[in-house]
Design goal:
Layout (H helix, E strand, L loop, with lengths): L34 H6 L6 H9 L3 E9 L6 H15 L5 E5 L7 H4 L8 E3 L2 E3 L1 E4 L2 E5 L15 H14 L5 E7 L6 H9 L7 E6 L3 H16 L4 E6 L4 E2 L6 E2 L8 H9 L3 E4 L4 H8 L4 H4 L4 H21 L1
Parallel strand pairs: 1-7, 1-8, 2-6, 2-7, 8-9, 9-12
Antiparallel strand pairs: 3-4, 5-6, 10-11
Helix pairs in contact: 2-5, 3-11, 5-6
Pfam families: ParA (PF10609)
Subunit structure: Heterotetramer of 2 NUBP1 and 2 NUBP2 chains.
Organism: Zophobas morio
Length: 319
């Protein structure tokens, strides 16, 4: 197993490391899920790491949005955070990078499904949702939203490198990166390319029930092993607010105390909980700006508090 960090703690004794000419080719690499990535990559440090560092020099905060499992609303929460950050301060610049290569959701959630990416001498131009909010996704490069992306690890790795090093992001206050569930190729690629670019940290999304929290614990462990700071955990769909009678219901019961209890046990920040509002969910499916159109929604109000905490955590890093 080849590592993605300098001093990992979870690799076999005889792993040659990614900087070795034998990376992915030694006998110790047999059976490692990352063997093909290591074997197909360049011997020695990947030159893409330096390219990414140079491209992202004008990006103040680079934040990965992770989830232990699918179905917890990670892509929706990414879009919510980006819209709220952009609306909070019109002088700040926010962007979303969709590195969920096989399941790109951001073009639809952000309401720019049929837009096209343009290329200039300075690189790819992201698609603008608002004056201070932009997005880049492989979804813009497909001929149809229904096209399947059937790629192995090395090709995903190359696409992520291109997104990070060849998109003309300009001056950004926040770059949120929407990742697929779990700890797979995309996560290893992102952590490798961002290793020298000043990655701010990761926001982890979960739902209250224990089956989701079990996988989130693994995601937190992944962050610790690859030295990614956990900025905090967001508990999505914590409670259901009936749009008719306003009655509160637990769709996903927090039988073990939910995300807040887990954060206390693992000593990671808890950013807050988001209720489940069917109206907001519909707005996200339709790509509408729910921040301005549904200002009284309990989701929007809870989101404001979460973003306030996230900004504080990010700013404390810069001091």
């Amino acid at each position: 197993m080849a590592s993605t960090v300098e001093n990992p703690t979870n690799i076999p004794e005889h792993c040659p490391g990614t900087d070795s000419a034998n990376a992915g080719k030694a006998s110790a690499c047999a059976g490692c899920p990352n063997q093909q990535i290591c074997a197909s990559g360049p011997a020695g440090p990947d030159p893409g790491i330096q390219l990414v560092k140079e491209r992202l020099e004008q990006v103040r905060n680079k934040v990965l949005v992770l989830s232990g499992k699918g179905g917890v609303g990670k892509s929706t929460v990414t879009a919510m955070l980006s819209r709220s950050l952009a609306a909070r301060d019109k002088d700040s610049n926010v962007a979303v990078l969709d590195i969920d290569i096989c399941g790109p959701s951001q073009p639809r959630v952000m309401g720019v499904l049929n837009e096209q990416v343009h290329q200039s001498g300075s690189g790819w131009s992201p698609v603008y949702v608002d004056d201070n909010l932009s997005v880049m996704s492989i979804g813009f490069l497909l001929s149809s939203p229904d096209d399947a992306v059937i790629w192995r690890g090395p090709k995903k790795n190359g696409m992520i490198r291109q997104f990070l090093s060849e998109v003309d992001w300009g001056n950004l206050d926040y770059l949120l990166m929407d990742t697929p569930p779990g700890t797979s190729d995309e996560h290893l690629s992102a952590s490798t390319y961002l290793s020298q670019a000043g990655l701010t940290g990761a926001v982890i999304v979960t739902t209250p029930q224990e089956v989701a929290l079990l996988d989130v614990r693994k995601e937190i462990d992944f962050c610790k092993k690859v030295k990614i700071r956990v900025l905090g955990v967001v508990e999505n769909m914590s409670i259901f607010v009936c749009p008719c009678c306003k009655r509160l219901s637990e769709i996903f019961p927090a039988t073990t105390g939910g995300a807040k209890k887990m954060c206390e046990e693992l000593n990671v920040p808890f950013l807050g909980s988001l209720p489940l509002d069917p109206t907001v969910a519909r707005y996200c499916d339709e790509g509408k700006d729910f921040i301005s159109e549904l200002p009284n929604s309990p989701v929007v109000q809870a989101l404001g508090e979460i973003v306030k905490k996230l900004v504080t955590v990010c700013e404390s890093r810069e001091e």
